[in-house]
Amino acid sequence: MNHPPLAGHPADTGLELCEGSALQERGLAVSFDIQLWDHPARAFALRFDGRPVAYVNRCAHVPAEMDWQPDHFLDDSGEWIMCAIHGAIYDPRDGRCAGGPCPGGKLIEVKVDERDGKVYWYPSADVQPAFPD
Ligand code: FES
Q1: Tally of structural domains, the chain
Q2: Is residue 83 in some structural domain?
Q3: Cα of 69 vs its chain's centroid, Å
Q4: Does 5 map to a domain?
Q5: Spatial CB neighbours of 51, under 8 Å, sequence gap ≥ 6
């Protein structure tokens, strides 16, 4: 199913996700509901090297959610996003596979930015806001 164009909305201005202070450097992520290719899915944002980054919570190895524990995506070193299922690791800077069973793979990025103390995310052709309950 295709959605009508997002008139005047989030693609330009972003959707408020959380307070910037909710994302501590290399700390827990903030997860949020989305539609990925018109199917319900989850995404997560975390702070890495001072800036928020966000990806769809979907491993490039097998399309499954990756968190070890809810909102816990980084490995013990704090350097890598690690999938809890088979240990694929991804670079938090760009979502590229950096080891494990995801060679050549990449997480699906969700554009985010931070302004006036809040973090916003931006829908795309692939990643749309979740439908309201
Ligand atoms: S499902 Fe993530 S490493 Fe296999």
Answers
A1: 1
A2: yes
A3: 15
A4: no
A5: 114
Separation of CA 21 and ligand 1 centre (Å): 30
42 contacts: CB under 8 Å, gap ≥ 6: 31, 32, 33, 34, 56, 57, 65
Outline where 6-132 has alpha helix (H): 10-13
| Closest C-alpha residue for ligand 1 atom 4 | 86
* Domain assignment present for 84: yes
Q: Tell me what pLDDT residue 133 has.
A: 61
Cβ–Cβ < 8 Å for 130, 33? yes
- pLDDT at residue number 12: 78
Note down pLDDT in tens along the chain; length 133 residues: 444 444 456 667 899 999 999 999 999 999 999 999 999 999 999 999 999 999 999 999 999 999 979 999 999 999 999 999 999 999 999 999 999 999 999 999 999 999 999 999 999 999 999 976 6
For ligand 1, atom 1, the nearest C-alpha belongs to 62
Cβ proximity of 55 and 108 under 8 Å: yes
Q: Give a yes or no: residue 1 inside a domain.
A: no
CATH assignment at residue 83: 2.102.10.10
